[in-house]
């Protein structure tokens, strides 16, 4: 190992789903670190997939906008529905935008900051109309409630479920032994599931986005790293800067 790399000898815990962890793990390794993947969440289709398909097909042509708030929303939506999108498209996050564009769809609205709050502000500048909201079962009610409050006709369709994943013993060995240099959390559910399984982390914590940070702090966790750019690249950059400061 090249010990001149910024994350040399650092063990960084990743709690997001296995599929989502791959990119972050590669980035950590590229900077000399060791990623400890302990996925605490997993995603799955809703139990009533046939009902959701019927709901999509019955409603999609009746709404001016369709909104995707995550890459998972895109993935599970198009596993259920293979038709066209006769709507304007809005998204939260550049990764969500890229996921849609990779399928050949044009995205009409992306807020500059990757949060539901900023998407609401963007819609305040649009002509009030109707909106189909594609989300998971643990999505905050904020978008639905606030857009309805300002006059939009909003219908939410839940296309996937976010459920707790209990790791195998070999996965959480380093956690139990306290051999983690940094704990990372990328959603409130990863925070809640970690606390349920392990209790409070005994080392520095990094979160992505203000919602995850708030969830951690409400649980009594002191957050050391929280990037202003709500992306994995933004989180990685802040982690690099954090250890640079710690090691000098």
From TrEMBL:
<dbReference type="GO" id="GO:0006780">
    <property type="term" value="P:uroporphyrinogen III biosynthetic process"/>
</dbReference>
<protein>
    <recommendedName>
        <fullName>Uroporphyrinogen-III synthase</fullName>
        <ecNumber>4.2.1.75</ecNumber>
    </recommendedName>
</protein>
<comment type="pathway">
    <text>Porphyrin-containing compound metabolism; protoporphyrin-IX biosynthesis; coproporphyrinogen-III from 5-aminolevulinate: step 3/4.</text>
</comment>
<dbReference type="Pfam" id="PF02602">
    <property type="entry name" value="HEM4"/>
</dbReference>
<dbReference type="InterPro" id="IPR003754">
    <property type="entry name" value="4pyrrol_synth_uPrphyn_synth"/>
</dbReference>
<dbReference type="GO" id="GO:0004852">
    <property type="term" value="F:uroporphyrinogen-III synthase activity"/>
</dbReference>
<dbReference type="GO" id="GO:0006782">
    <property type="term" value="P:protoporphyrinogen IX biosynthetic process"/>
</dbReference>
<dbReference type="InterPro" id="IPR039793">
    <property type="entry name" value="UROS/Hem4"/>
</dbReference>
<dbReference type="InterPro" id="IPR036108">
    <property type="entry name" value="4pyrrol_syn_uPrphyn_synt_sf"/>
</dbReference>
<comment type="function">
    <text>Catalyzes cyclization of the linear tetrapyrrole, hydroxymethylbilane, to the macrocyclic uroporphyrinogen III.</text>
</comment>
<feature type="domain" description="Tetrapyrrole biosynthesis uroporphyrinogen III synthase">
    <location>
        <begin position="24"/>
        <end position="237"/>
    </location>
</feature>
<keyword id="KW-0627">Porphyrin biosynthesis</keyword>
<keyword id="KW-0456">Lyase</keyword>
<comment type="similarity">
    <text>Belongs to the uroporphyrinogen-III synthase family.</text>
</comment>
